[in-house]
Amino acid sequence: xxxxxxxxxxxxxxxxxxxxxxxxxxxxxxxxxxxxxxxxxxxxxxxxxxxxxxxxxxxxxxxxxxxxxxxxxxxxxxxxxxxxxxxxxxxxxxxxxxxxxxxxxxxxxxxxxxxxxxxxxxxxxxxxxxxxxxxxxxxxxxxxxxxxxxxxxxxxxxxxxxxxxxxxxxxxxxxxxxxxxxxxxxxxxxxxxxxxxxxxxxxxxxxxxxxxxxxxxxxxxxxxxxxxxxxxxxxxxxxxxxxxxxxxxxxxxxxxxxxxxxxxxxxxxxxxxxxxxxxxxxxxxxxxxxxxxxxxxxxxxxxxxxxxxxxxxxxxxxxxxxxxxxxxxxxxxxxxxxxxxxxxxxxxxxx
Length: 351
Hints:
The mean pLDDT is 94. By secondary structure, the chain is of the alpha/beta class. The N and C termini lie far apart (65 Å). It has helices at 20-32, 45-52, 63-73, 93-103, 118-128, 143-152, 177-185, 196-202, 242-248, 254-261, 265-272, 279-298, 301-308, 338-350; strands at 6-13, 37-42, 79-81, 107-114, 135-140, 163-167, 213-214, 232-234, 237-239, 314-315, 318-319, 328-329. The protein is built from 14 helices and 12 strands. The radius of gyration is 26 Å and the shape is elongated. The chain has a 6-stranded parallel beta sheet with strand order 3-2-1-4-5-6, with helices on both faces.
């Protein structure tokens, strides 16, 4: 590290929402190393939604809202917001730092981390040669203890000169984005945990803006899945799951439809894979799917009751197969979610 070099502090995170603690840590870091400026780098929407999938309700502020709040927090000249990661899909610590290095080749970069991220830092160092691009500001409640741990660390001990250990600023403990979200959902004020400019934006939000989400039709919600076994009649033929009925609809020959009606969902899908349906069927497939799912719930009162009991939760036909027409790819969080929309339409009509 060059003491007389220009320095830039970089803090990545969800900022969902950005808190007073984020501000305090950034200000402290900038002052501690006499940095030229500090950049907040919010993670992408897709990454944040994956991270929040199992939180109920999963309060996910939009990228635009998170950036707006960060900008409100950056009233000081030395603090800025960078949207390098917003349009990406995955966490991009190393690519982001390399991009900063290309943009500011004359500057020393300092990436802010907590001492609970030592193993992540070790991984980035081994796999991506982290310290070739950036230094680290490591915040710790136990400065002496963490410095001793670094000296004995199998990977990080070689890079101690690139790590600045700082004590956690007073007043930061106990402030977190999750606490703020919890208070908002309970209708409690969290004004003291946010900077005034951020609070002015955040106070306009309420729990109704963040309905709970069912993002996978498995386990407790397996009955929402098109492969779920249940008996119903559609267009004069009895089927034992929606998937079989849907693929049978591709055929005009009734005898072929009856063959598929007796198949499991997997076998019906496999049988129809080599069959090319008509262009007319392609144009009508969404209406066909809606008609079949409606028959399933209309003829199975217990399933209809369970569907209604999902209340106002958003139903997302999430998958890990990159299917984006009938559902949502849970990695990129992209998808038209037509099956989820059909289920919510049926539910809303039955309430």
